[in-house]
Amino acid sequence: MNILLWHVHGSWTTAFVQGPHTYLVPVTPDRGPDGLGRARTFDWPESVREVSPAELADAPVDLVVLQRPHEAELAERWLRRRPGRDVPAVYLEHNAPDGAVPDTRHPCADRTDLTLVHVTHFNRLFWDNGATRTEVIEHGIVDPGHLYTGALPRAAVVVNEPVRRGRHTGTDLLPELARSAPLDVFGMRTEGLAAHLGLPPDRCRSHELPQRRLHAAMAERRLYLHPVRWTSLGLSLLEAMHLGMPVVALAATEAVEAVPPGTGVLSTRPEVLARAARHYLEEPQAAAEDGARARQAALERHGLKRFLDDWERLMAEVRS
Predict the structure, then answer these.
(1) What is the pLDDT of the chain when averaged over all its residues?
(2) How many Å apart are CA 9 and CA 72, to the nearest integer?
(3) What is the pLDDT of residues 166-212, one digit of tens each?
């Protein structure tokens, strides 16, 4: 098939384009949000092709994967075909709802011309989807390998824009957690985080690494810390588990399903998370053993083959 999708979420797309199809990714001269083209920091196969809006008018497209509300109009204008009517379409929802949760109505609620796909069961439960047909296809991960060493007695945190996103990503919880375990925070726009939180620089170090270096850096840290209050299930959490890292996570949203017993510690009490982080720092063998179980759990539930098989099944149904 020829599948049209925008480059919106690099990590998710990296798994999706491992399938057997041709993936048409719009590109514009400015490489703005509606035309990023191929990823520059992720490893995408040659089956991902950049196409300009002008080329899309005559391009054979078998399926459109929409990921943002305005893409339906954009696709209709560029393709000169209406997604859901003239060409099969699905809408992929990456995010948990914002606003008046749990009454937040999804932009695709009550549509009969497409399928709404959520990446977690939590998201489907909390969005008001109306009468639209919904599916859940949980994340899949391109396995980075069991890279864990835990040689550095520090906690890894992966979050983009922690200052702006604040309570959503649990940024306000980091000072208490940093007293138990020094933090290495990886992600975009993390510079100055320690000063923002009033922490000594060594208790909260910021790193903005290219994707190709991130996994090895994470795996050197003793544990993965996930203080997120309200967002969809972060792919970095699943990547950490694939790496063989033990997880200390706030028991919120889909994390309670993704982190089974024996792979780390989940709690809604920050003091419990702080004790767990300190335990892993002091007991590296326990950290390695829980991390190995975390890797096995992630491979079984969030492996790439299951993910691609689920998408193949859905795409066949949508096009039938």
Answers:
(1) 96
(2) 17
(3) 999 999 999 999 999 999 999 999 999 999 999 999 999 999 998 88
> Are the beta carbons of 96 and 84 closer than 8 angstroms?
no
Q: Are 286 and 229 in contact (CB under 8 A)?
A: no
pTM: predicted TM-score of the whole model, two decimal places: 0.94
Positive or negative: CA dihedral 11, 16, 21, 27: negative
Closest Cα partner for 130 from 91, 88, 168?
Answer: 91
Determine the Cα angle at 200 with ends 197 and 204, to 5°.
65
In the sheet that holds 247-250, the strands lie side by side as 204-207, 183-186, 152-158, 221-226, 247-250, 264-267
Q: What is the DSSP pairing of strand 22-26 with strand 48-51?
A: parallel
CA-derived radius of gyration, the chain: 20
Task: Show the tokens assigned to 99.
Answer: 């606003």
Contact 217, 239 (CB under 8 A): no
Predicted local distance difference test score (pLDDT) of residue 189 = 95
Distance, CA of 217 to CA of 312 (rounded, Å): 33
Residue with tokens 């759990």: 297
* In contact, 245 and 156? CB cutoff 8 Å: yes
One-letter-per-residue 3-state SS of the chain? CEEEECCCCHHHHHHHCCCCCEEEEEECCCCCCCCECCCCCCCCCCCEEEECHHHHCCCCCCEEEECCCCHHHHHHHHHCCCECCCECEEEEECCCCCCCCCCCECCCCCCCCCEEEECCHHHHHHCECCCCCEEECCCCECCCCCCCCCCEEEEEEECCCHHHHHHHHCHHHHHHHHCCCCEEEECCCCCCHHHHHCCCHHHEEEECCCHHHHHHHHHHEEEEEECCCCCCCCHHHHHHHHHCCCEEEECCCCHHHHCCCCCEEEECCHHHHHHHHHHHHHCHHHHHHHHHHHHHHHHHHHEHHHHHHHHHHHHHHHHC
Taking only the tens place, the pLDDT of each residue in 99-109 is 889 899 999 99
